[in-house]
């Protein structure tokens, strides 16, 4: 299996530069831990409110124009959907997005606002319905994580972290399908080889933590994974992403639902940043997991939270 390289990530950075925000690396003195000074990589500031725009622009930008004009198809619980819809609109091609019925309305509405056709499906049916849409439209699939171009695009975050804080010692990254953590891990290990890269996922969707311990992928029922408030972290790694994770992650840890909620509130009150639950798991781990000392970066992966849920969390 051919894995993504730092060269692939550097090429992706050049390809997407005109379309994607180079998010700042923000120091967080409010963290109050002298042994583990903290920086935040706020991908919620991207045009679609999440990191997914990086992989979407890289994957669509890599397509031959004759293929791209047939349109693109994606399946996603929300952030990848918005990213593909936005990138397709910029390139002027049709987008057909399959989304689970339980996806927060704010993400469905945002996807439609970019001009995409949204097809809703039942839990666990995204891939099957997307295959039907592909056959119907003749478009090309832009998967949420299971593709080298997606991994390389997401890896540009790690490239930026390494450029802005070459002395980084720990990077905490949310884990779901594994595209983000695969890409960031690949970049960090290439440019800051002594740094630790630690994946974080919800305890209620802790399949990757279990797989990392056993050395092989495990399958958790979608009903179990859907229990977590972190709706963007309910996917499971593919063979491709798990192979990357085994190579570039030092550990995978889990956090509870209460810890995730507390991290969302901390981002809002202390950093003045809006985070969806999925985007806050890295900060939750920083607060709750026994981690080594040293300069630490948490990746705030997205801020597309349902307003009513944010209000509920902030009300305590």
UniProtKB/TrEMBL annotation:
InterPro entries given in the database record: TrpB-like_PALP (IPR001926), TrpB-like_PALP_sf (IPR036052)
Keywords: Lyase, Pyridoxal phosphate
One Gene Ontology term from the biological process aspect of the record: D-serine biosynthetic process
Record Pfam families: PALP (PF00291)
Keyword hit for Lyase: yes
Annotated function: Catalyzes the anaerobic formation of alpha-ketobutyrate and ammonia from threonine in a two-step reaction. The first step involved a dehydration of threonine and a production of enamine intermediates (aminocrotonate), which tautomerizes to its imine form (iminobutyrate). Both intermediates are unstable and short-lived. The second step is the nonenzymatic hydrolysis of the enamine/imine intermediates to form 2-ketobutyrate and free ammonia. In the low water environment of the cell, the second step is accelerated by RidA.
Family: Belongs to the serine/threonine dehydratase family.
Protein name: threonine ammonia-lyase
Native organism: Mycolicibacterium flavescens (Mycobacterium flavescens)
